[in-house]
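We modelled each protein-ligand pair independently. The example shown here corresponds to the adenosine-5'-triphosphate entry; the chain sequence is given first, followed by the ligand as SMILES.
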Amino acid sequence: MINLNVGRSGPEEPAADDAVRDVVLSSNELSFWYGDTLALEGISLEIREREVTAIIGPSGCGKSTYLRLFNRMNELIPRTRIEGQVFFRDTDINHAGVDPVELRRRIGMVFQKPNPFPKSIYDNVAYGPRVNGFRGDLDGLVEQSLRRAALWREVSDDLDKSGLALSGGQQQRLCIARALAVEPEVILMDEPCSALDPIATTRIEDLIAELRDDYTIVIVTHNMQQAARVSNKTAFFMVNDNGAGILVELGITEQIFTNPSDERTEAYITGRFG
Ligand SMILES: Nc1ncnc2c1ncn2[C@@H]1O[C@H](COP(=O)(O)OP(=O)(O)OP(=O)(O)O)[C@@H](O)[C@H]1O
Ligand SMILES: [Mg+2]
């Protein structure tokens, strides 16, 4: 069995009681199709405020697809279809009255490969606030966002330098700063460290631990050690006999990795499949 170091370098506080944490994101009997292909089937899941929820599972089980449902990124792909509901707090986000642009401001996203704009570090961070018509102290907001992303000290003298001139790990922290600059409530991260070396990965994991106090974070990761280190809750997805992604179980991370309720989760975390 893999040593997951649960409890040693994991979140310091015990996972909070669900009774005191509001549900921020949820899905209800959610199914999703790419064309005629069922990619997700019947997923009901609740994600709570100011927790890190990790989504793990084998390649192709629909983790990225599921994450993209929360800020309506999948609708940019032609011939996709949703059944069931996705909620941001009490709002059914696929309801006709919901503005996807505003939704994406409140639910930010960080991708696998760092993708800074070919602009200066300053303009990368200032971009979102400018587009949203921010009227306050932009320099202050850029500095605050870079500080929150633990990048300020490295770049404060080079704000005019291109974002593309930074290292991979710095670029990813710049992308996190860019996401934070529009003051989101939720940050979705799809394998944010998979293109990074171990040192840069540790810095992002440390950053996630800090951001957890102020934001609700959902992180897709292939790396079970990472899920164990950074998350309060873990959701395990797999592919069912129809070839569709399903939720097997969601639980407190330590419990999922030490004493899962479902034998399929146990088989996965002990390396017997996937
Ligand atoms: N744009 C797309 N068009 C059609 N099918 C897609 C598209 N994106 C994903 N799929 C299919 O949907 C299923 C789930 O894919 P998804 O990328 O969500 O899985 P994943 O769990 O994130 O995998 P990985 O761990 O490899 O990133 C797969 O069968 C995939 O081939
Ligand atoms: Mg993926």
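The first helix runs from residue 63 to 69.
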